[in-house]
Give the backbone structure.
Amino acid sequence: MTLLAPFAPLPAHHPWPRHVVDEATWQAVGARLGDGAADLLGLWGEPDAVHLALHRGMEQGVAVVSLPCPDGRFPSVGELHAPAIRLERAVRDLWGLEPVGASDLRPWLAAVDQPYDFLPAEGPGLHEIPVGPIHAGIIEPGHFRFTANGETVVRLEQRLGWVHKGIERRLAGTGLLEAARIVARVSGDSTVAYGVAFARAAEAALAVQAPPRAQALRGVMAELERAANHLGDIGAICNDAAFTLIHAHAALLREGVLRTAGELFGHRLMMDRVVPGGVAIDLDEAGGRRLRALAAEIRPRLAELAAVYDRTPSLRDRTVTTGVVGAALVRQWAAGGFVGRASGRDFDTRRDLPYPPYDRLRLAVPTRTTGDVDARLWVRVDEVQHSLGLIEQLVADLPGGPLTVSLPPPAGAAEGLALVEGFRGDVLVWLRLAPDGKVARCHPRDPSWFQWPLLEAAIEGNIVADFPLCNKSFNCSYAGHDL
Amino acid sequence: MRAGLLLRGLLGGPATVAAPAPATDALAELARTVDAAARRRLGRSLSIREVDAGSCNGCELEIHALNNPVYDVERFGLRFVASPRHADVLLVTGPVTRNMAFALRRAWDCTPEPRWVVAVGDCGAGCGAFVGAPGIVAGTGAVSEVLPVALHIKGCPPTPMQLLAGLLALMEG
Ligand code: SF4
């Protein structure tokens, strides 16, 4: 992108370049995003600057663009590229920076329990249905405001931010290991993905590489996490369509994964098993055999469940053509994971921005084109099968050697960016270390930021009763989004 | 295919695990927090309303697991219900965020007496990873900052067996 050529990349930032630009260039980058010439990966702030990360249309693939904001203002990117709107509202709430020209300045992560101006939807016969923040189930809190005409949803507007903890401010000034524990809890269901993303960002900043054995074990744990989450959600989606048989069986498969993880890695969700510099736990030969046996057990049983799903018309009647997201929207939002892939966006950081151990593995990326609940479910079924294959590949050929590399103190300024494929899609972590090795600034960005808004689109024209089904087929993270 | 699933159900052994003993530290805590009269009203069966008041969602995953065929809490008379109005117990995960404190109090106000709060996870106990974060209540996010807590089940997250041992202690009173 010649646009950025006049702004030399900062030497401290790895592995992708960061350019500090002027206002005109910031706006030109925003226009590029708006034209669809690049994908927005994230937009975040700090007290005196705003940053965005983007992909495609750059010579180097990924780039970070930064704009200093000495007077606390920056030109709105959201006005040019809608996916940036919620991110800018969050930047305004958290750091007090004004997005100049933005037309939506309602708070987003702040003042969540205060009255809120929902966008009006007017017309004959319309009524509103407020739901949440506490929902009827064991799920995270959020508020959904439906406008319906009879049973048909005309509009859904989300009000999120209820579980905002202030993680980014909490991270500033903490040591690397403590910060790793916190980032591993941004979204508990993706703890391995966040653990790997934070570790990779730290390792990039400090110019070290985790040893090959650690990289492979990270891959094993990441694929177990993906399989466990998909299995749970495949069952839960069928449960929301009143098909409890698949739910019970899928829950058993999920439980099998978590128990195995608990026995082999000492924690069912594998929290804190990835550390900056490597991994905190090894896997022996017997453990490898256990994992191969697990894969061999799940594969046919999942295939059987998928076949039952496929042959049950009353079930597929609920999922086919329900909650459709169009290809143009997932492209515009650069929606990652199964939400993007079910609508034809063929992107997976494991393949397209490869990192170890995936750079040496055979990796298939399943996609579908119908963009409905059914397509999201099938992508997830296929991904579980692929994850099992990856686990088998990894344990069949575990490199020897140490589990960690020691982390040197930063040589002056040190910044790292990492993108890691969690079960929902690409998790981004941006990190700046202070000269004493502590975290100066860290921004974790959940894939849900670019998926939640598409759920609003997916439900339009569907019946209210199908919302749980649509919602579950997305399963966006509230915690990961609310930070 | 379907015959395969059904046959496995018929011929395979039960998936369910044996019940853990009620957690002794939980019994001790309950002896302190719940008086004898109220304790007699606990037991036999409890309706539980889960409230996520700020969790990372890790605790929710393991609470969810309580309903799977392996842990199957309903066999102990523990039932998850959809409304606090139907609940005896609020099972609350934290850290309680400033944004959720009001909704949590409202859920409590909707819960008919007798009612008890069980705080889940290190975060619910105010000693989790987020202590010191600016968006959580009192800097700790402890559920007890907002509601009277009868029982804490710690862990990050507590395993389903730990949750079960804690809840069974509640049933024993
Ligand atoms: S106790 Fe652990 S798993 Fe539970 S909400 Fe807190 S960080 Fe998440």
Summary: Helices of chain B lie at 2-11, 24-33, 36-41, 58-65, 98-110, 121-124, 160-172. The longest strand of chain B covers residues 46-52. The mean pLDDT of chain B is 89. Chain B touches chain A through 50 residues (CB under 8 Å).
